[in-house]
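Ticket reopened. Same input as before:
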Amino acid sequence: MKKSDVLIIGNGISGLFAACIAADRGKKVQILSYGAGTLTIGGGIIDVLGYTDEGRPVTDPVQAMGQVNPTHPYAKVGSDTAKKALNTFLKITNEEGFPYIGSPNKNKWIPTAIGNFKPSCLVPRTMDSDVVFKTSNILVIGFDTMKDFYANMVTKNLKKRLDSDKSIKEFTVTLNFEYGKDLRDISAMDVARWLETEQGHVSFVEQVKPHIKKDTVIILPPVLGLDPNYKVLDSLEKDLSCSLVEVSSLPPAVTGTRLTKMLNSYAKKRGVQVIEKAHVVGAKVVNGKCKSVITEGFDRQREFYADQFILATGGIYGGGIIAKIGALTEPIFNIAIDVPKVQTEWSHKQLFADKKQIFAQYGVSVDENLIPLTAEGKQVASNVKVVGRSLAGYDFCYEKSGNGVALITAYKAAAAFCGEA
Amino acid sequence: MAINKQHAIDPDKCTACTICITACPVTAATRKFRGPKMTGPALTRLRKLVSDDDPMLDYCSNCKTCDLVCPSGVPISTLNMMAKNEYYKTHPRKSKADDMLAHSEKMGKLITALPLGSTFANLGVSIGKAFNMMGAMGITKDAKMPSYASESFISKFKKIKQTSYPRKVVFFSGCYINYNQPEVGVDLVKVYQKNKIEVAIDENFVCCGSPMVSGGYIDDARVNAAKNTAILKAWVDKGYDIVTACTSCGLMLKQEYQELFDFAGMSEYAAHMYDSIEYLAKLNDEGSFNTDFTPINKKYIYHAPCHLKVQAIGRPSMELLPLIPGIKIEEADAGCCGISGSYGFKADKHEIAMKVGSKLFARIKDSGADLGVSECGTCRLQMENGSGVEAIHPLTVLRRAYGL
Amino acid sequence: MLKTTVVVIGGGATGVGILRDLSMRGIKAILVERDDLGYWTSSRFHGLLHSGGRYAVKDKEAAKECIQENTILRRIGHHCVEATESIFVRTPEDSEEFEQEWVKSCKECGISAIPLPMDKAFELEPNLSHKILSAYRCPGAAIDGFRLLWQTVASADKYGGKTMTYTEVTGIETVNGTVSGVKIRDKWTGREDKIACDFVISAAGSFAGQVAHMAGLTVNVKPSKGTLIAFNHRICNRVIHRLHKSSDADIFVPHGSITILGTSSIDSAPDDTSTETAEVTAMMEIGKLTFEHIYDYRILRVFAGTRPLYSADPNAKGRSASRGFVALDHAHDGIKHFMSVCGGKFTTYRLMAEKVCDMVCEQLGVNEKCHTADENLVEDPSPELMGRAKAVFPSYGAELAASRLGNRKLEHVIERIESKPEMRELVCECENVTLAEIEEIAAEPTSHTVSDLRRRTRLGMGTCQGTFCAYRSVGAVDKEEMPWAKDTVYLFKEFLETRWKGIRPVLWGNMLRDIELTRAIYDAALNLSGVEEIK
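Engineering reply: fixed in the latest deploy. New output:
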């Protein structure tokens, strides 16, 4: 393999975004990917910082970054870079014809598939929830026979969370899909495919239209098309003369798939090479600098050379950090992460505790330049930076900060490798 | 059956995350398929427990997109193939086509051995279509079927005079090149000679077994694997590298054998296995790739076969072909073509295969390309069938650029 | 106020066995259980139907009872039993003398123990450690605790035996030194009531001491906690025992789609079902001698139960206390018609019930003999019904549903799917549980939480441990507007936190990855804890 300028390990949101940033600045970028990246199953929205450590909702996420713990990834980035990163993301979505909305300085409340709300920052237009709070009639739409969305539950819980003077009703769209023993269950993706068809569109409009009053917003599962564009949304909004809002839902999430496709498309247009199924098992570090990383498959080991490396391996879930009994390791650079020997000390007794979960904050420690540090505090390699979920010091679930940390640290790492401070 | 950890088959790694479902092209095309996660790791747990029917299993095309996207390294498609193999030990086959398509080498041998055999065979396909005999066999009458060559690659190879070079490879041609498109094999020899590589072949090679595995005949594939393993190991011991010009053969020999079987020597020879273009890209990295090209002022669209993507070698064709002066080439990046070896030739799968490939067909047509390019023989056939644009092997592009 | 002849306290194996036995003899009986059926010890075990081999050397009486009851349960409870057989294996650590004594003892007890050549043993069980020296086939089997309990109750129900779950006994009333009734409280509504009765049998297992205390008596139960490890797959096709003096972590039971390894033995409080990582690793180290690659197998969860070991000697500990059962007639302590049943084994639950009921009948002056071995717990689905099941259930669903549900409920579930085909949707994709089944069980008066549905159906007991089916099952019960499904957030947390309890001590490898996914869904995407009112 030829040497690349920047080699990125991992093609989740942080890896892809770092690739976009570096490729935009003329770098020859290669991504080594193992699996599609969990972005595909994620919600496709950019949570930046939803709650403080004490559990108070955050209004302005960029401003609130100033108050995070010094070990938090945001503390290593600074709010100016964070803002640049988020605005660059918005710019990319614009260029790809799938513009996200929102401001780095303001959180939104997004409805969820259980009828709660979650704070998030940048979202696709299909999840522009501001209208939910301004409109007096909410119509929660479910689909009969579709799996993984319960309009009744959403309606019931929305009533608990919203002003009581709103009318919140549910309506079930009949899909008329065939159903039998030899046919699998119907997923949101199937419905999304149906809505992309002329027949699906017409049927949906016919069924829903009679229930639309003058001042109505529709809340529905993420089914507004599979691709990163707003064709389905725009045509439905036009024909129904009302807004539609997709909820934050569970995998397989159409919303995450759209974002993956969009970032891949942008990166490939800029010459980013993706090598799939490349399982990186180690790295060669000489005199404090990483020379290459090594992949291993069924055939033989391969060496990939680069000037700069970005580790975007997705933490414990992504396989970027391996948990064993009483031990936690970053396997490529073989960084031991300091954890208690007794497993039960890795967590609180309650899974959904009213504080950050302990294990969620485990990860690779880095210096202010995102360069990984050993347990003794020494740089692992000066031309390696760690981004996204593999970083220590934050609980993306509790804070609602997952994709935000990914984008912001990826931006900082890639820009720094391109000579930007 | 209980799980057996001696092999690389480990359903334990699955976290049920559903990424494979979002990516599976067959799941997207039909609800008759339950999806990779459900058919593979999820049902693997239950198959040990109860006997029952599982007709959905038949719909997995073994394209391996699920393996490609799985973040946990679960060999989902191989679990499906193993289950299919077990399933058909106790359940009747849907059609006679399964057996015929899985054992295509038998047919190839038979036809090319007969004088004018290929003419009659190709004629037979058209007559069969005309009288709907194909339909009775369970083979679609709508797809363009691979036609048989009048002379096998092995026979053609013997007539090629090669210059001897220190760098030597043994070429595993596979059935498709040997019986259906021998010229691709000739392209390889010419292109390799141009790059100072001597090519050997071995007449004792048998079908890699890929169509057998996909068709649920793993026990037959095991017999072939045992033969091929011994031969491949012997060539590697003599200092040869191994190349394939069919990505399914390549994947089968270096990966699926190790997942499914346990013969001595597999990992040793696999370390010396290359895709034919990957091998040239390696020369390019070393600075010894011959770029003595004449310009080609044509537009190509490249389709990466699923079985190439999953080999972790990137896109070697997209590294080399752009080196040809004048060439315009872009990657289709439109997912699976749908054919999956012989899947799309089956009557009950043809419609699914065309639906899977529809995105690629549209992409080819929209690109305005003069020619399609792909390493896989049946992918090329499907590209032509779906888009009407002729598709060729990247080796053929290189041969033309060398003016050979 | 309710009225009956006998109140049985405790919905474990002993209690349900007694309820069925009494009911079949025509004695009116009500069983009251503080939690769900099988919430405690009767589900917190290996799921092993003993052949008796384990007791052959130490306790021949127990061994004989086991093989006798094993044979009966395979027949009457065959929907709960997976007749795997068992293999006893001797590792280099185990003594050869014991093996010889064991072979002799098995013969004496009438337990078939057929020597198995090692090459054959490895063929049958390829994952066994290749250091193992000898192996014997015995008639052990896997048994599903939840299922046996519910099917026993279903059988009792046919004879009028009544079961009240989530009903706590708050007092035992006596008149002139004879039991006259029990005070009860509904755990969900808090409503208090009374059952007037002539006889009370406490089958409260590890809690027998607490129940006796309500009547001012002392019963000496020494709860001993045993931890169990559930693996994601079948590591073995048969029950695997170590051939040595019974000890920790020496039994592997393939149980449905999983394997359970047990167990340890630590003195504990009756309600202590916690597990420490150290207990797990200690068991894995021992288990490694049987299955050398044990650390490679994915753990689903760990759980613990307490053995209700009875001892007249308050200082007796752990395994040295008797595994046989004791029926204490408290007439000797001054209260008539009050009996405590302690100890015993799951495998012999029917026999214990028979012996207890013989004693009770004698006191009540009833002459009817025991019939519990004569009749199957639930009727078999007819071939016609199975045909209908196979036509509607998803692949690998029909047989599983049939053994879970039994004849009558299976028919209901089939009818649900026949009238609404979409009811065949898989709520639990790991264990193949359909929406129809969830709705059927959810509608039963004994269901109050999603965990209750889990115990009845295996919902959430597979690979993802509830990550995906939590949403589906809560949504489904919410949709049906079950009276108990008012607070969705509570339902989610009750179910997921229960699953979490079993994962927390083994939070490494894929278990941790899975929990990351669970949190990503319920905390990050759905903000389960987010209760803000957005105005």
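Chain B is about 50% helix and 5% strand. Strands of chain B lie at 168-172, 198-200, 241-244, 273-275, 299-302, 328-331, 371-373, 391-392. Please confirm and we'll close it.
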